[in-house]
Amino acid sequence: MPLINIKITNDGVTKEQKQQLIEGATQLMVDVLNKNPATTMVIIDEVDTDNWGIGTRQVTDLRKESGS
Amino acid sequence: MPLINIKITNDGVTKEQKQQLIEGATQLMVDVLNKNPATTMVIIDEVDTDNWGIGTRQVTDLRKESGS
Amino acid sequence: MPLINIKITNDGVTKEQKQQLIEGATQLMVDVLNKNPATTMVIIDEVDTDNWGIGTRQVTDLRKESGS
Amino acid sequence: MPLINIKITNDGVTKEQKQQLIEGATQLMVDVLNKNPATTMVIIDEVDTDNWGIGTRQVTDLRKESGS
Amino acid sequence: MPLINIKITNDGVTKEQKQQLIEGATQLMVDVLNKNPATTMVIIDEVDTDNWGIGTRQVTDLRKESGS
Amino acid sequence: MPLINIKITNDGVTKEQKQQLIEGATQLMVDVLNKNPATTMVIIDEVDTDNWGIGTRQVTDLRKESGS
């Protein structure tokens, strides 16, 4: 029954990577809490880098400056 | 003042269906809790089927297999 | 698979009322979107009235003033 | 470490306005709670006006009627 | 109509500080986006330091080590 | 920068288990998406079983019936 919500920036995450996130997060619930994987839900939110800020700065701008 | 957040897969839900969800969720707060409908908010999030997993699987793949 | 999150103030909502909210929200997904009730989840968050504001005011204070 | 989530309707909010929201929300944590701005995160969600309801009505329709 | 959710650790934040957070977050919506304060909602979640992690560590332990 | 929110029922999850959830969720972001663990946040919400429903039923009642 656990519910995991993963928020990441929208950087071209592939369908395969999303599948890995879903599997890994579900397995974590099994390993640590002995939860039933069949009823574990994972929802991934992809957030535009203009819409995410840390340390008062937009991620868009932080990345430009760091060249990454 | 209640706030209802509905998360569903993005399957071509129509504007009319969304209106029905908003009305129904608001009425539920009135019927069960005697809340004021005027200040009840409903927010609907439509999630890509690649981004939603249950039972370790992406909904995209579960639907392919079930033919639905 | 829908997920409904209901946020309400913590005003002594009973177990029976919560059951009614869960049933009603699930039925709404069935009626409007033809969703499977077996995999529909509802999570209710009860929020302290000091922690909820509307119109710049805490609900705690709004209620004192209105006498309700 | 605070985390602020701002949900607004998707009305052409500019990158500059989003930057102002991020700065303002972060500064609020510093001013009121003496939090460290470097680890304060802000995430902005822009919601379609069909997907947001208040008083049983979609914001899309409320705006049409009010002419705004 | 904006909705602001503030998540902070549960460190004895006072009712007055919560009122300041509600006022400040609402005013930010007015100043930056010209929103109506009367329908702006703010919800504050206080999270136990055992339940919040950053950099793989619980905030409870990070604070012990830093002596803060 | 990823943010992971884990919602589970409040069943006496220990501080050590929470630490394992935080580490595991953070490591998943490193392994799959090459994210920086230092800025990855995890927040765990523990939900009362009266407040969580699946298949129209409260988890409290589902557990009584299953004897688990």
Instruction: Provide the succession of SSEs of chain A.
Output: EHEEEH
- Please give the radius of gyration of chain A in angstroms: 15 Å
End-to-end separation of chain A in angstroms reads 38 Å
Structural class of chain A: alpha+beta
Q: Portion of residues in helices of chain A?
A: 25-40%
| Number of separate strands of chain A | 4
Oligomer: homohexamer
Unreliably modeled segments of chain A: none
CATH superfamily of chain A: Macrophage Migration Inhibitory Factor
Mean pLDDT of chain A: 96
**Domain unit count of chain A:** 1
- CATH architecture name of chain A: 2-Layer Sandwich
CATH topology title of chain A: Macrophage Migration Inhibitory Factor
Number of helices of chain A: 2
Protein name (chains A, B, C, D, E, F): Tautomerase
Keywords (chains A, B, C, D, E, F): Isomerase
Pfam family, one (chains A, B, C, D, E, F): Tautomerase
Family (chains A, B, C, D, E, F): Belongs to the 4-oxalocrotonate tautomerase family.
Describe this structure in words.
Six copies of one chain form a homohexamer. By secondary structure, chain A is of the alpha+beta class. Chain A has one domain: 2-Layer Sandwich (Macrophage Migration Inhibitory Factor). Chain A contains two helices and four strands. In chain A, strand 3 (52-54) and strand 4 form a beta hairpin. The longest helix of chain A is centred in the middle third of the chain and has 19 residues, at 15-33. Chain A is elongated, with a radius of gyration of 15 Å. The A-F interface holds A 1-9, 13, 17, 20-21, 24-25, 28-29, 31-33, 35, 39, 52, 54, 59 and F 1-9, 13, 17, 20-21, 24-25, 28-29, 31-33, 35, 39, 52, 54, 59.
